[in-house]
Amino acid sequence: GRERALIRESWQRVSGSPVQHGLVLFTRLFDLDPDLLLLFQYNCKQFASPQECLSAPEFLDHIRKVMLVIDAAVSHLENLSCLEEYLHNLGKKHQAVGVKVESFSTVGESLLYMLEKCLGTAFSPDVREAWSKLYGAVVKAMEHGWEA
Ligand code: HEM
């Protein structure tokens, strides 16, 4: 359908430079919720500032991982259920590192922010709506990984 075409077209403009766009997303995320910085620890080491985190190689790898998951969702728009089990396990891993389900809405806001910055006037209300739905579906599948 038309929504899928909007997603594919807009993702094409983002996916060519995933780290650059991922940095916009996570910079926004840490602005909105600075406490999330504490959850990113590599070798038990805490980052002193968002800037330090945003330039760490391990964190840049996490950005690549996030962008790959979104890329997989965009490639499987017709059959997102293929990713169900993967996303369920991914949810479990995030629960284990201390992420709260609620934080995924802040990630969603940051994703829309990044898309708006990247797409400019091409970020129409229809494009926003299509992305909200797709992101919502990904999060819903990940949420199955949380145990009460
Ligand atoms: C792994 C934190 C959001 C995809 C991890 C790890 C941490 C983490 C600490 C383990 C270390 C690492 O691999 O770098 C967070 C936090 C998030 C967040 C605090 C937001 C509140 C996301 C989102 C996605 C994602 C939105 C994708 C849609 C992944 C993937 C891995 C990962 C694919 C690797 C899992 C594996 O090793 O199999 N995340 N993450 N993360 N994250 Fe996230």
Concise account of the structure shown:
With 148 residues, this protein is an all-alpha fold. It is built from 7 helices and 2 strands; from the N terminus they run H-H-E-E-H-H-H-H-H.
What does this protein structure show overall?
- This protein is mainly alpha-helical and 148 residues long.
- It contains seven helices and two strands; from the N terminus they run ααββααααα.
- A hairpin with a 2-residue loop joins strand 1 and strand 2 (45-46).
- Helix 1 (2-15) runs antiparallel to helix 4 (57-75), helix 2 (18-32) packs across helix 4 and helix 6 runs antiparallel to helix 7 (125-143).
- The longest helix is centred in the middle third of the chain and has 19 residues, at 57-75.
- The radius of gyration is 15 Å and the shape is globular.
- It starts with a helix and ends in a 5-residue tail after the last helix.
- The model has no long low-confidence stretch (mean pLDDT 96).
- Bound molecules: protoporphyrin IX containing FE.
How are the SSEs ordered, and which strands pair?
Blueprint: H1 2-15, H2 18-32, E1 41-42, E2 45-46, H3 50-54, H4 57-75, H5 84-96, H6 103-119, H7 125-143
Antiparallel strand pairs: 1-2
Helix pairs in contact: 1-4, 1-7, 2-4, 2-6, 5-7, 6-7
The chain binds protoporphyrin IX containing FE.
Residues 36, 39-40, 58, 62, 65-66, 69, 90, 93-94, 97, 99, 103, 107, 138 line the site of protoporphyrin IX containing FE (HEM).
